[in-house]
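Q: what sequence does this backbone want?
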């Protein structure tokens, strides 16, 4: 099979590898679409300590089951020919975090595309327990958005109970999916902040208000008036964004941090204390979040037209380069073996 292998900063190569086989409790998926994640762009640049070359990345994917451990498959209701997406987060199931239902915080968690070969390949092997069926006629590129959409749903739930009005920083893939998930989950008025006009164009088409970082204070006052803003979701992770969010949030409000940009950010913590602001990190998702994401996609509630592009797996090196250099109008690129 053809694979896209990461060998170090800005080094990707197409290589032939042996087709994988299903072990106990596993299925082999013929990959139809695999999305390039922002975290993989960080890995491509050499900024990810967990992505150790040589590595086949790719954890957002959809495909068809072509091989399966029949006993596990039969028990779970899967068989060869099923079209599926997979939760790439693999937990131990026995640590204290798993026992209380927080598998995303498993002390021994692994991720497909980091700790085991991922989906930038013709085939990928995954646990049967990670699979979710999708309709055969569903666009595989859209179905592959299940993983990033689950990230967004998890962040929104952490921002509850304040969902009526919302500010989202960042209009990349996570920002656009957070916007759509929030509107589907009951948000009223949403303001999305970004610097790129092409991204803000997509936000407008999805029904939200927009602002650049320089405009956000005035725009927020105009939209939210005296009631202020109780929830901000940061999908960027830059220090300047975190600082501005703390200045904008209402007393007692929630700031949910999703973006993994700056590792350290100085902030006015005395202000945080005096205003009882809640700052929460949001990492990955629960099984319920992932299932919710699949349901939302299958029901057609998420639009990807205009900001998602499809490319061949052989175009992978050029696609990674275009995304990191900002030389594409698309927020998301899916690779197709």
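A:
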């Amino acid at each position: 099979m053809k694979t896209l292998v990461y060998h170090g900063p800005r080094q990707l190569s197409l290589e032939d590898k042996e087709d994988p086989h299903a072990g106990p409790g596993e299925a082999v998926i013929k990959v139809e679409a695999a999305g390039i994640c922002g975290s993989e762009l960080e890995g491509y640049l050499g900024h990810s300590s967990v992505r150790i070359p040589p590595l086949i990345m790719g954890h957002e994917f959809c495909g068809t089951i072509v091989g399966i451990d029949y006993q596990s498959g039969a028990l779970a209701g899967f068989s060869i020919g099923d079209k599926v997406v997979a939760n790439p987060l693999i937990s131990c199931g026995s640590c204290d975090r798993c026992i209380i239902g927080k598998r995303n915080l498993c002390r021994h968690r692994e991720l497909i595309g980091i700790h085991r070969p991922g989906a930038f390949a013709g085939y990928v092997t995954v646990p049967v327990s990670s699979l979710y069926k999708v309709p055969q006629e569903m666009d595989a590129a859209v179905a592959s958005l299940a993983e990033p959409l689950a990230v967004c749903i998890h962040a929104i739930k952490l921002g509850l109970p304040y969902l009526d009005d919302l500010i989202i920083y960042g209009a990349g893939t996570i920002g656009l999916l957070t916007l759509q998930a929030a509107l589907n989950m009951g948000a009223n008025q949403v303001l999305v902040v970004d610097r790129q006009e092409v991204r803000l164009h997509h936000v407008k088409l999805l029904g939200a208000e927009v602002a650049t970082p320089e405009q956000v204070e005035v725009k927020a006052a105009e939209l939210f008036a005296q009631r202020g803003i109780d929830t901000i979701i940061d999908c960027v992770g830059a220090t300047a964004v975190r600082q501005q969010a703390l200045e904008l949030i209402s007393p007692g409000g929630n700031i949910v941090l999703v973006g993994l940009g700056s590792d350290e950010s100085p902030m006015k913590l005395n202000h945080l204390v005096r205003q009882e602001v809640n700052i929460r990190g949001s990492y990955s998702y629960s099984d319920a979040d992932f299932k919710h994401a699949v349901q939302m996609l299958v029901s057609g509630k998420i639009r990807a037209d205009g900001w998602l592009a499809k490319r061949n797996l052989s175009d992978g090196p050029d696609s990674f380069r275009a995304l990191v250099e900002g030389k594409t109008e698309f927020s998301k690129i899916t690779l197709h073996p």
